[in-house]
């Protein structure tokens, strides 16, 4: 599988001897020499005394030092050598940190033989032969080159060649279906079907038929035999979106399907077998759903093989601008408009806004602008709510200085006076301390009351985004409903 030339040498840093031996056996078909170091100190000694290694496979959890420390030292001595992080404690956070330290790739243990071989083979290729599949800043439908997204791309690259199930989590609108399609497109199954089924959008009584199909007469309205998503995805990828919304009875049938690859159409006794790669997604915490009894624990362990968390748009830095510019050109062409760019004030608004609806909200904002206005440059006057809301500084300087500000100022003074009096008297006890969320809730409510219910104005006075207040109010309301 390797390109050509002499045998390449790999240093594997792994403290568990049995795991090291297993992974070394996985790499035998690549015709490479694998040397093993059982701890960080030994790894650095071997690396310092022998500069002929072509690749380092490095565990993050070592008995003596952190794998990150080993990685940093390797980078000092030889900046160009590829280092693939291997850890059983894999997560996007760990991937981000590893990439910041200079890792070239990331693997979550336990990993299958094919996945390890493909990752090592890619790491040993010349840099010019890698990453030609998409233009700079783009990756299988994603746009953006921020560090959190680079970590996502690495996990997709590592997971795609395998048949292991990928479990995607993330807030609504972060691009979970785009991620699933990327896993499919980067895999050997790309030429076969990618079939998506939304478990939340299909009525409970019909979802089994949508998933497995049905025979003629299986139920009222079944006028002919129908092929289900499982059969259509044979040889390809089956994407189960909003998996935590699936009915418990169907979850047991899905578990059997995943374990055996066999299923029965609704109303049929004939067993069919297919070869399907599963990718699933949810905007909930799947383990929390297991604890609540809404999701089967055995199904969770079967599906949660390679977890992949998509970062919210607010954590992706200037990716928001790249995405917005791409959307602007695309929608402008669709609508026959002249838009090509954003002015400087709009750029700052886009970057500073926290985007609670993520990429989906950004899409809606861009379409709103293009449909309702025209020109070559987007200006502040064209922005729809809530981006059009004036900032806290402007509100404070534009005349809401009477009743509203007097009320808040008086409240601040009263609270400060009470706090100072208690502190000076030395009478503050643990019983006087309130939870921070309660203090925050009271401050928000005072601001809303002072602004006669106008949340954007209240947000301006509190110097936060209106969406922050909306989100907190919703969270408090949901907590209250749960208590009731």
From TrEMBL:
SUPFAM superfamilies: CheY-like, Homeodomain-like, P-loop containing nucleoside triphosphate hydrolases. Keywords: ATP-binding, DNA-binding, Nucleotide-binding, Phosphoprotein, Repressor, Transcription, Transcription regulation, Two-component regulatory system. Pfam families: AAA_lid_14, HTH_8, Response_reg, Sigma54_activat. Residues 142-371 form the Sigma-54 factor interaction domain. GO terms for molecular function: ATP binding; sequence-specific DNA binding. The keyword Lipoprotein does not apply. The modification 4-aspartylphosphate is found at residue 59. It comes from the Bacteria. GO terms for biological process: phosphorelay signal transduction system; regulation of DNA-templated transcription. Residues 9-124 form the Response regulatory domain. The keyword Nucleotide-binding applies. This is AAA family ATPase.
């Amino acid at each position: 599988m390797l390109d050509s030339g002499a045998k390449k040498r790999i240093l594997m840093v792994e403290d568990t001897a049995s795991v090291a031996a297993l992974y070394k056996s996985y790499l035998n078909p690549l015709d490479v020499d694998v040397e093993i170091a059982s701890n960080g100190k030994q790894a650095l000694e071997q690396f310092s005394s022998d500069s002929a290694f072509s690749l380092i496979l490095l565990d993050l959890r070592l008995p003596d030092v952190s794998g990150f420390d080993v990685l940093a030292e390797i980078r000092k001595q030889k900046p160009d050598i590829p280092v693939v992080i291997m850890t059983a404690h894999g997560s996007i956070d760990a991937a981000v940190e590893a990439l910041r330290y200079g890792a070239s790739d990331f693997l979550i243990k336990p990993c299958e033989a094919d996945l390890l071989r493909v990752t090592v083979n890619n790491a040993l290729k010349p840099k010019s032969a890698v990453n030609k599949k998409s233009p700079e800043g783009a990756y299988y439908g994603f746009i953006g080159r921020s560090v959190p997204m680079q970590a996502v791309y690495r996990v997709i690259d590592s997971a795609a060649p395998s048949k292991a199930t990928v479990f995607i989590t993330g807030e609504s609108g972060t691009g979970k279906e785009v991620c699933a399609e990327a896993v499919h497109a980067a895999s050997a199954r790309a030429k076969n079907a990618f079939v998506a089924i939304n478990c939340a959008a299909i009525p409970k009584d019909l979802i089994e038929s949508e998933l497995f199909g049905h025979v003629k007469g299986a139920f009222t309205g079944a006028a002919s035999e129908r092929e289900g998503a499982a059969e259509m995805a044979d040889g390809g990828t089956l994407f189960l979106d909003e998996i935590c919304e699936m009915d418990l009875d169907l979850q047991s049938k899905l578990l059997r399907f995943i374990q055996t690859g066999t299923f029965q159409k609704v109303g049929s006794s004939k067993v069919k077998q297919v070869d399907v790669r599963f990718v699933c997604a949810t905007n909930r915490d799947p383990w929390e759903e297991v604890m609540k009894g809404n999701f089967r624990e055995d199904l969770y362990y079967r599906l949660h093989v390679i977890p992949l968390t998509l970062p919210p748009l607010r954590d992706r830095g200037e990716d928001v601008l790249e995405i917005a510019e791409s959307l602007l050109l695309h929608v402008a062409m669709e609508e026959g408009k002249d838009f090509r760019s954003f002015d400087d004030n709009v750029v700052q608004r886009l970057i500073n806004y926290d985007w609670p609806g993520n990429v989906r909200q950004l899409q809606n904002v861009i379409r709103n602008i293009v449909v309702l206005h025209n020109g070559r440059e987007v200006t502040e006057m064209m922005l729809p709510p809530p981006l059009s809301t004036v900032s806290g500084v402007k509100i404070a300087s534009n005349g809401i200085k009477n009743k509203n500000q007097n009320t808040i100022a008086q409240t601040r003074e009263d609270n400060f006076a009470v706090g100072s009096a208690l502190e000076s008297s030395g009478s503050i006890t643990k019983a006087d301390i309130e939870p921070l969320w309660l203090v925050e809730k009271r401050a928000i409510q005072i601001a809303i009351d002072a602004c006669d219910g106008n949340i954007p104005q209240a947000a301006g006075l509190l110097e936060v985004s209106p969406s922050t207040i909306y989100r907190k109010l919703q969270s408090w309301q949901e907590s209250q409903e749960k208590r009731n």
